[in-house]
Amino acid sequence: MKTAQLLNYERDRWIAGDNPAEIVSAIDGAPVATTGSGGIDFGAMLRHARDVGGPALRRLTFHERARMIKALGLAIMARKEELYELNYLTGATRKDGWIDIEGGAGTLFSFSSKGRRELPDAHVLLDGQLEGLSKQGTFVGQHIYTSLQGAAVHINAFNFPVWGMLEKLAPTILAGVPAIVKPASSTAYLCEAAFRVMIEAAVLPPGAIQLIVGGVGDLFDHLTGQDVVSFTGSAHTASKLKSHPTVMRESVKFIAEQDSLNASLLGPDAAPGTPEFDLFIREVATEMTVKAGQKCTAIRRAMAPAEHLDAVQQALSERLAKTKFGDPRAEGTRMGALVSLSQRDDVCARIAELEAAGARIVAGDPAADPPVAGGAFLPPILLRTDDPWAAQAVHDVEAFGPVSTIMPYRDLADAVALANRGKGSLALSLFTHSPDAAREFVQGAAAFHGRMLVLNRDNAAESTGHGSPLPVLVHGGPGRAGGSEEMGGIRGVKHYMQRTAVQSTPTMIAAISEQYIPGAPKDFRDGHPFRKRMSELHIGDTLRTESRTVSVADIEHFAEFTGDKFYAHMDEEAAKASPIFEGRVAHGYLILSFAAGLFVDPDPGPVLANTGLENLRFLTPLYPGDSLRVELTVRSKSLKSEDTGVVRWAVEIFNQKDDLVATYDLLTENVP
Ligand code: NDP
């Protein structure tokens, strides 16, 4: 294979850097590519992101950005085979590559769909409800999120060159922030190829993404408080970068996801012979061998009740012995190579530290001959310590390869304390069929772990497993794991936005947030809104209905018809005796039904379906003889696809005294 010179993507052009460094194949040590970023003006890259990429992204709405993210995912999928070819050179099998490449594209799809479903088709995201700050309602407060006006610097780890880039890019772009991506050098050729696919897809505006292959030079000197650094890698590098003087001085947001001594626990009820025991053995072996154990979430500490530790050792050793490891391109290979010989040396040094602390190897030989000469191969290595309280290193030292240590615990309290001894981890799994054990363990240990999986016979078939970070769930952990979070659906987008408390009138808040806010002016236009396509509806357009009086006969008819004969609707004396009502009241559901009867336009038209109600509140009881009327206002609208959109209506139901009887948001699916 020809050695490729990897290029930086700097200010919308591909350029070679000085001082090239060679990257070799994990399989046989043959040269693959050179990286180099010498001579690049890193300050200019940041300025380009802030001055060109940021404004272009911020002009788009969340939904427009969400559609771009989907298009990037489709571009990756269309050219995935090119990426799979390079994936092998990192030592990874095709299955490992699936997690990286298709998992990366899947993360883009997930963020795109969440963005379109959960974010408004606007530029501002509201945080929480309007806070009333005054008696007359003229002075209100609203928290809003807006896009940061700097750049996101993404520093990625070597182990997932595609997924690692995309899981950070998806929330960043959705937030409207441009990114500068710096992959780990040892696998930068795969990241560069995936980055190139995205550039060639011509989906993103100029300046939205840039790439550095090689060192970052003086980039950090140019950071400001509007920038974000998102880092994945070693705790050592994280703490070095976090304490960079500019990061400290400018209060640059720093998201760190770093080494973690993840634990897995065989529950006290999960004796040999139970489904949970078998699942535990399978999961620990899988986590040791997928990606040759080079996963931030891999199980490093496997804990079992003391009386079952021998059985665990035997079952795990037998399973690991069957793992075919070797050239990842060969048919049937289950585990490939580590990323490089130096990573292999590092893992062997860490194994030696674990041994020095009292752990002993019970399966696998670190000195075994490599299946391919010159390759960075290491078989799965299982260690055991019988005194996990004395062997502190097993809770401190991460061997970032196919390495795990089994250890006993006495009881659940002991297991909780041992699990928490890792001082903060990304992922933990517990294998139990006992709700009591799950409660005691999770409540005792959750504060130390970013994600916890309770696995058993009931969910194993559908589970995504211990090691899979999911775009909709947070990925990160406290303490040693970095003290940050990534992903987690829309939570991850907010890392790249600023929350601001805005205080003003409802009119101003509505204008700022691009949606109708109760108390803001309404526009009572001609024509029923259900007769208008979404494009003809404006935010604030309001329909005011006729009013209708509610009688005792209506209430009794509704009670008979639905079967809801709750005393407050049917028994005058009992209703009077309640601390809430002055007598019989109309059913809440009757009020909703009458409201719909008042505002609905019956004929087929651009409103296709009622898809739900949100934030429903009943505020004033409606007594027989009272009347009700409705104001239906367009709160916000968003496109779901080319053929359908969603209109969110603010529904306000008033009585004859103009007191608010009920409010809610109505969601309808509409013709755009
Ligand atoms: P590093 O922390 O050395 O590297 C992580 C990233 O940081 C790489 O992109 C690297 O680039 C970059 N980097 C390193 N130094 C600097 C610097 N001074 N300024 C800016 N960027 C920098 O981790 P490694 O990849 O070498 O892995 C070492 C260990 O980290 C592993 O053995 C494992 O323990 C842990 N790790 C944890 C991961 C996790 O997901 N939690 C993932 C990967 C590793 P470059 O490659 O060019 O040096």
UniProtKB/TrEMBL annotation:
SUPFAM superfamilies: ALDH-like, Thioesterase/thiol ester dehydrase-isomerase
UniProt KW Oxidoreductase keyword: yes
Coiled-coil residue windows: none
Segments crossing the lipid bilayer: none
Keywords linked to the UniProt accession: Oxidoreductase
One Gene Ontology molecular-function label: oxidoreductase activity, acting on the aldehyde or oxo group of donors, NAD or NADP as acceptor
Matches recorded under Pfam families: Aldedh (PF00171), MaoC_dehydratas (PF01575)
Residue intervals of the MaoC-like domain: 539-642
Every Aldehyde dehydrogenase domain range: 21-458
Protein's recorded name: Phenylacetic acid degradation bifunctional protein PaaZ
Organism: Sphingomonas lutea
Gene name of the encoded protein: paaZ
